[in-house]
Amino acid sequence: MSAKLRNTLLYLLLTLFALTALIPFLWMALTSFKPLEEVEKLNPVPTVWHPENYRKVFEQISFARYYFNSLFIAAWVTFLTCLTSSMAAFAFARLQWRQRDNVFRLYLATLMIPGVVTMIPNYTLMVKLHLLDSYTGLIVPSAFSAFGTFLLRQFLLTIPAALDEAAEIDGANKWQLFWDVILPLARPGLITLALFTFMGNYGSFFWPLVMIKSEHLRTLPTGMLFFDSTYGRQTNLLMAASLMNIVPLIVLFIVSQKFLVRGIQMGAVKG
Amino acid sequence: MTTPPARLQNSRRARERRDLWVAIGFLLPNLLGFLLFTSGPVLFSLVVSFSNWNLQQTVPFRWVGVENYVQMLHNSEFWLYTINTFYFLLGMPIAVFGSLFLAVMLSQKLRGIVIFRTLFYLPSFTSGVALMILWKSLYNPDFGLINAAIRHVSDLLHLGITPPEWLLSTKNVLGLDVERVAVNRAQWGMGARDAIIIMGIWMGIGGNNMLLYLAALTNVPQELTEAGELDGASSWQVFRHIVWPQLAPTTFFILVMSFIGGLQGGFEQARVMTNGGPAGTTTTLSYHIYTKAFEEFQIGYASAVSWALFALIFVLTLVNWRFGNKEVSY
């Protein structure tokens, strides 16, 4: 097979897969501009475009509020996870203490615990602490990540040890070493963890679903389902809301591509 | 290893002791959260699984021993849901090999390859409730895009295909019966379970697994593949005998993680797309635990099921490790 033919075939296949990935999104976008009567018809392009569907989403449910809630909760979880994980990673990667690596292995093993096992006790704990139906109850239980500790530890191990000695000679204590020397150097790793955490919590569904009863605390995935209720399904508005839901993710994705790829490669390095 | 002089050893010990307290300080926030929200709850749910605890408090609390577990094993629904949970793993090999296939294509040196990588990654990046809502409408038997396409192709080529009912159908590609553990010819076809699997492949194929393979492929030493080519091996032979063995650790890692994730999965799909139906065929163990705990408030029973799931995942992961590691050490 000549190289030219081979490349043409490759491009054809790649385009085919790319279309498969894209067409559902396109369908989502087109449906979001249709009038309700046309949703159940098969013309892919709306006969009359209805951009006001997007306005209606904001009018019929507190969509702006849900937007804020989702972003607010994800931002807080991300901040706290980065802080607690980087501190723990520092202890595992840059401090010498006995049994350190055994304790770390124990940490890793907990990655295997399924979320469903801890879900029920965490719920009852929230009931006992009167944190049901609150921002705190949504944020705090998600702010501690064994995965994050693992990811950052791997990253911190790549920073030369000579820096620690230099900082010590300059009279820095361990906190200063952590905050002023190591953290700034760990920025790419932190950004990766922040992205993963933000993505995961922005879309989180289960925990808000069981925790939240009040309308004004709902997040996007739970709030959007209003348009999917058995009485009065409005698929066009549902699609408009879904599209607006993923817009921040797409923006984030485009801005952060290189960090994502690097982060995933880092995760592949054996501990 | 030579033993360092005693003086050095002492100073190292002193240093270790000093650092231990600092380390505890740094670990504390994470450790507290971990004790409170992970290890504590795991033990708590084990204890609770031996009780009849009900959040509605209509029945007085008491310890019931292994009654929840006995009840679970005698419950035919539990077995259906276990089968469902395993059924959803059927998509895993397709998704994993699909990821590998895409990664091999993307590792070729071509113009604009970054654009394709971005497009392939998009579904897994945006995955979640929004996309499940989208797929629910794509799967609509009457006006969904998928059946429209099937009907169009069928008419064009005069095939006379009746498109599947997708999320409304209990049919499945293995022809499993719903009522009992058996194969039933009438059940053969495409139904809700397959629909969810297909969607899962679409969402996952270009995601993190593909990127992991892409990373692993760039790490395969070029001398090895070049040596193979010099010896006159075809590109398939080079891949099969040189590249594939080099990818073994990555494949192993991906399989173990997909297994763990897959057995826990299916909650969002069931909640958003099917409510676990039709006839319970898309209810996985995790959705079952959710309905028992948060709709029927039977915390004791739900905890027992969650521990059964935990045990299942644990045992299967150990088995994977045993066999996988043997395969990997070449």
Structural overview:
The complex is a heterodimer of chains A (271) and B (330). Chain A has 271 residues and is mainly α. Chain A has one domain (56-268): MetI-like (MetI-like fold), CATH 1.10.3720.10. Chain A contains 14 helices and no strands. In chain A, helix 4 (63-93) crosses helix 8 (146-157) and helix 8 packs antiparallel against helix 11 (187-202). The longest helix of chain A has 34 residues, at 235-268. The model of chain A has no long low-confidence stretch (mean pLDDT 87). The mean pLDDT of chain B is 87. Chain B is flat. Chain B is mainly α and 330 residues long. Chain B has a single domain, classed as MetI-like fold. Chain B has helices spanning 6-48, 67-73, 76-87, 91-106, 113-125, 129-138, 145-156, 192-204, 208-218, 222-230, 235-264, 267-274, 285-295, 299-328. In chain B, 39% of the residues are buried. At the A-B interface, helix 1, helix 4, helix 6, helix 12 and helix 13 of A face helix 1, helix 4, helix 5, helix 6 and helix 9 of B.
